[in-house]
């Protein structure tokens, strides 16, 4: 089974602190993603990476950065945490997946970690 | 553009009731369609998927049929259990797009009464 592991389930930080959220996957997936989930807003993509050292901004990258030094690990960094970054953060990974046309039948569905609930005071 | 619309929640049902959660989509090309489930305190898990028109995805007693003519992918279960209480997300990957382009609906919270 695919396993996506997020380092912390619950964190409490103070405004201005630097926060690291770590994510590791064990299925050799090329793609990795960071989402945040907020009530009434669903899932919003922060950043994603399709290869080591590669990253692209998602829909809400402001206030965040990412690091992908190894294929299995994707880190989300809050340089200076703010109260509006209190949220549930979800990491996910996948094979590239090109719609339904990928060889081997892979459709690129995402595999998620259990989430990291961050509270910024 | 590409989008997913699913019914507003919360949905509250009694155990053994029939469940339908509506999902409609707008997409270019031939998208792949997914239902994800999020149990309390957990991340999302893939529940089922369908990759072409008239495909039926099924898992854990849940079913959804890819209806291109109505651009829908409604989730159904014949007899729900308390353990089905969760948030359900409909999602799509547009045809010929990479997984980075997956688009989620806003989620529907389901609560099952014993």
Structural class of chain B: mainly beta
Reading the helices and strands of chain A in chain order gives: EEEEEEEEEEE
Tally of helical runs of chain A: 0
Q: Roughly how many Å is the radius of gyration of chain A?
A: 14 Å
Share of helical residues of chain B: under 10%
Multimeric status of the protein: heterodimer
The greatest interface between two protein chains, and residues involved on each side, is:
A-B, 30 and 29 residues
What radius of gyration of chain B results from the CA coordinates?
14 Å
Structure description:
The complex is a heterodimer of chains A (121) and B (114). Helix content of chain A is 0%, strand content 49%. Chain A is built from no helices and eleven strands. Chain A has strands at residues 4-6, 10-13, 19-25, 31-38, 42-49, 56-57, 65-70, 73-78, 87-94, 111-112, 116-120. Chain A is globular, with a radius of gyration of 14 Å. Chain A starts with a strand and ends with a strand. With 114 residues, chain B is mainly β. Chain B has no helices and twelve strands. In chain B, strands 2, 5, 6, 10, 11 and 12 form a six-stranded mixed β-sheet that branches. Chain A binds chain B through residues 4, 6, 31, 33, 40-43, 48, 50, 56, 90, 92, 94-101, 107-115, and chain B through 29-32, 34, 36, 41-46, 49, 51-52, 89, 93-100, 102, 104-107.
How would you concisely characterize the structure shown here?
Chain A has strands at 4-6, 10-13, 19-25, 31-38, 42-49, 56-57, 65-70, 73-78, 87-94, 111-112, 116-120. With 121 residues, chain A is mostly beta strands. The model of chain A is unreliable at 99-105 (pLDDT under 50).
């Amino acid at each position: 089974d695919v396993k996506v592991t997020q380092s912390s389930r619950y964190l409490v930080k103070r405004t201005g602190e630097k926060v690291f959220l770590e994510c590791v996957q064990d299925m050799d997936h090329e793609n990795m993603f960071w989402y945040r989930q907020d009530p009434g807003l669903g899932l919003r993509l922060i950043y994603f990476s399709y290869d080591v050292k590669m990253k692209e901004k998602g829909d809400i990258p402001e206030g965040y950065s990412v690091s992908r030094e190894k294929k299995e690990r994707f880190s989300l960094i809050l340089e200076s945490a703010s109260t509006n970054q209190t949220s549930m953060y979800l990491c996910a990974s996948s094979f590239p997946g090109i719609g339904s046309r990928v060889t081997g039948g892979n459709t690129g569905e995402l595999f998620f970690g259990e989430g990291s609930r961050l509270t910024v005071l | 553009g590409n989008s997913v619309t699913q019914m507003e929640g919360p949905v509250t049902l009694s155990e053994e009731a029939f469940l339908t959660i509506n999902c409609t989509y707008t997409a270019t090309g031939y998208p792949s369609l997914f239902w994800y489930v999020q149990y309390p305190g957990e991340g999302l898990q893939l529940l089922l998927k369908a990759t072409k028109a008239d495909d039926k995805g099924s898992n854990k007693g849940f079913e959804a049929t890819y209806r291109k003519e109505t651009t829908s992918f409604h989730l159904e279960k014949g007899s729900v259990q308390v353990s089905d209480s969760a948030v359900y997300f409909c999602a799509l990957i547009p045809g010929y797009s990479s997984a980075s382009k997956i688009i989620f609906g806003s989620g529907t919270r389901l609560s099952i009464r014993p």
